[in-house]
């Protein structure tokens, strides 16, 4: 998340807004120091809500990342301030190619109304020079002139991600590099940086959803934003029930981290990929454009989507004992890339009936 300075330059998140989600704040510095109690708190957050705030302060790399978020936001603003004519030259072509610009109103929200955000997607492989399939695409000047910032932002994101992955693996009694190896940036993947601008909500007719309710496809998302508007679904509610949508309060120096569908799949339902959406920005914030930058981490392309074995990961016998029927729909036999394409197609055709997944009880361990 951005620095305090950027927060101070933005209208405040209202203090009296209700309901606001209770989200755990996890210290990156403590994860780096291998603090077991912090890792346990993070695992609980990943199981119950699927979201937590990652406090980047008091860690050298984290502090660097805080400064870079401000620069990334500057890049998003400059990119989105380009003329429509210029931006559409870089239009994406999903599901053939997810890279590039998506104009406002192209996607639908849950009511069928057009969305209220425009975004630009950059592929990690292009930024790091990993691309095995196709050459990097041209990008507009505000992005093109910041290749160093982008590389560094990804690298610092990897640092944070590695410690999150290690702590989760260790808490689940898996070899420490288990989750990291499945998404290591040295291998080609669909990992993206999505730069988003939401239009201000100037009139009551603009107060509808900006980005449809969804779960994230991939493994782990690192989201930076300053302005409110993000809502998470209270796990006790169904998405159709408006009362279940809780506002997320962004905090200076913190990233918002959430688990994606792949983490649920690998853990047999232990970790939770929770529904979220972006509504209008609350209070005075609705009068200004809302920016966000999301590193949407995906598994490496050939990664197997089958459930992991070992540690505290439940087995098929556990499923039976608990009377759980896990709808696999053939996912286990797919690679990560095949699975992502399948999901993207379903989304495009409006067949993706997104719902929160995971949050299963952890069984007691026989051995400590
Ligand atoms: O803009 C936000 O706050 C959330 C974006 C998001 O959920 C996504 O890009 O998947
Ligand atoms: Fe998301």
TrEMBL record:
This is Fe2OG dioxygenase domain-containing protein. Pfam families: 2OG-FeII_Oxy (PF03171), DIOX_N (PF14226). Transmembrane segments: none annotated. PROSITE patterns: FE2OG_OXY (PS51471). GO terms for biological process: small molecule biosynthetic process. Belongs to the iron/ascorbate-dependent oxidoreductase family. Keywords: Iron, Metal-binding, Oxidoreductase. It comes from the Eukaryota. Residues 188-299 form the Fe2OG dioxygenase domain. GO terms for molecular function: metal ion binding; oxidoreductase activity. The keyword Transferase does not apply. Coiled coil: none annotated. The keyword Metal-binding applies.
């Amino acid at each position: 998340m951005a620095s305090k300075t950027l927060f101070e330059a933005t209208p405040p998140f209202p203090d009296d807004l209700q309901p606001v989600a209770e989200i755990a704040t996890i210290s990156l510095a403590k994860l780096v120091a291998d603090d077991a109690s912090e890792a346990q708190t993070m695992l609980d957050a990943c199981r119950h809500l699927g979201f937590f705030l990652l406090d980047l302060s008091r860690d050298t790399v984290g502090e660097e990342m805080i400064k870079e978020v401000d620069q990334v936001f500057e890049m998003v603003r400059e990119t989105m301030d380009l003329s429509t004519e210029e931006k559409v030259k870089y239009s994406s072509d999903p599901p053939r190619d997810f890279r590039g610009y998506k104009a406002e109103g192209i996607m639908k929200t849950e009511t069928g109304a057009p969305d209220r955000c425009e975004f630009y997607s950059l592929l990690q492989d292009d930024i790091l020079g990993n691309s095995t399939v196709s050459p990097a695409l041209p990008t507009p000047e505000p992005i093109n002139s910041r290749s160093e910032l982008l590389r560094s932002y990804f690298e610092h994101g990897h640092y944070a991600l590695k410690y999150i992955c290690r702590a989760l693996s260790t808490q689940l009694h898996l070899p420490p590099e288990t989750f990291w190896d499945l998404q290591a940036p040295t291998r080609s993947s669909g990992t993206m940086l999505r730069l988003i601008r939401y239009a201000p909500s100037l009139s009551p007719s603009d107060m509808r959803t900006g980005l449809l309710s969804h779960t994230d496809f991939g493994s782990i998302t690192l989201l930076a934003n300053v302005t409110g508007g993000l809502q998470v679904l209270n796990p006790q509610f169904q998405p159709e029930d408006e009362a279940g949508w809780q506002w997320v309060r962004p905090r200076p120096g913190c990233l918002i981290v959430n688990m994606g569908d792949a983490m649920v799949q690998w853990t047999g339902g232990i970790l939770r990929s929770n529904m979220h959406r972006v509504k209008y920005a609350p209070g005075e914030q609705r009068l200004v454009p809302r920016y966000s930058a999301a590193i949407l981490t995906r598994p490496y392309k050939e990664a197997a989507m089958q459930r992991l074995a070992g540690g505290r990961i439940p087995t098929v016998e556990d499923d039976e004992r608990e009377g759980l029927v896990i709808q696999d729909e053939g996912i286990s036999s797919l690679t990560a890339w095949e699975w992502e394409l399948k999901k993207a197609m379903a989304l495009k055709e409006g067949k993706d009936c997104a719902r929160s997944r995971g949050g299963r009880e952890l069984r007691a361990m026989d051995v400590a």
